[in-house]
Amino acid sequence: MLPLLLALLSAPHPAHPAARAAASPWGYDAHRLICDVAWREMNPVARAAVQRILAGARPHERFSESCIWADEIRNDPAYARYVTAHYTNIPSGRERVDPAVDCAESYCVIEAIRDLTAEVADRALPAAQRRDALRFLVHFVGDIHQPLHVGRPEDRGGNDVHLRFLDELTNLHTLWDAGLVQRALLDPWDGRRLYESIAPAERAAWGDLDPVTWANESYRIVEREAYRGVEPGAALGNVYADRNAAIVERRIVQAGYRLGRLLNQLLGPRPSRGVTPPRPDPRATRRAGFGRPPARRHRARAAGSPGLAPPRVSTSRAPGARPRPTSAP
Question: What CATH number does the domain containing 266 carry?
Answer without folding.
Answer: 1.10.575.10
